[in-house]
Amino acid sequence: MRSPRVSGLRGKGLLVAALASIAIVVSAVIIRTEEQSPPLRFPAADYRGYPDVPLAGLLVGTNYTHYAFPNCSWNGTNILRTYARDAVRRRVHVQLRTMRRRGIESLRLVVWHITDPRPNRWGPVPSAGGRISDPYRTNLIEYLQEVRRFGFGRLTVSFGPQWTNNPLADNYDGSKFSENWRFVKDVRSLVKRYGPRDTRIDLFNEGAPSDYLKPRLFHRMNDYVSSMYARYVRAFGSDDVTVSVIGPENRFDRGNRLQNLIDSIRSTGLPQPRWFEIHLNDAPADALQGLRSTDQVLRRNGLDQPIVIGETFYDDPSLARAFREFFRSSRRVEEIIQWFRRRSSSCNLSPPYAADAYLPLSRVTRKPLR
Questions:
Q1: What is the pTM assigned to this prediction?
Q2: Which domains does the chain carry?
């Protein structure tokens, strides 16, 4: 799913500059005050009594980035931006507990970022200097610790560079690549230290280049993905990393995004990811076709890696039936992570989330491909 539109700063004279300076000072005071508040401690019993999540079977999870979407708005409720508030900590704690009780086994967190996110309130955090700064740093650490305490089986962290940090944007600044890379390394260090046992990194949310892009933009995206992937694998190996792909949206889709990703990574001479993450925010018949097409592309390239459905419509019985149909011929899918929007709605759902339609599929154990 695409994130909301990003706005950039535009100066309008001395008055605006002065007001901006005042806002920065006020924000700094608020941040210092929030940082001085010790984290809340919840009863140890809240974290007990949940079954272990078996990683050998099919996991069912959910994207979880905001604690609410009031009046269909993304603004002011992103967890990484607001977790310093006690009321938000309590709310996230209850939501994580409820989702764990409802059988949610894994989570996916999109970290949207930009050098300076002002005036965007919908979700991006600052990545200036290639580091996640406070209060967002502390917010991320405490979020990761909560996810680990509740025993979720896996956490996927997906990076979503925005505005001049985004190679898909017309105003992309190539000098931001270094900032983005350092930011990935910095966030990863926290994820590995404080997150659950099994953590994964998606270097660029829906970053696989499409044949529908103009040639100049296609080459830029291809260079960004191959360079970022190469740096990551040389630094950390290929066991925990991928780049998510928008799956074929229907039988007429000729974007060839998965093949382009495979070719881009192949050009580096480095190993392919251990799994491929596909986004299928489509009608059931199209999602089934998208899975079959994905399977065919991987087989054509001699790849037996599993598939993760990293986004699909929320708790949808018709999509669950389509996935089950695919399972009749393939056990390649190892995780289904729903998005927080219903197929029939234009607004996001507020958590806590359930996945009653998809959970029965978790009984299907992925078998090795032959």
A1: 0.91
A2: 39-363 (3.20.20.80)
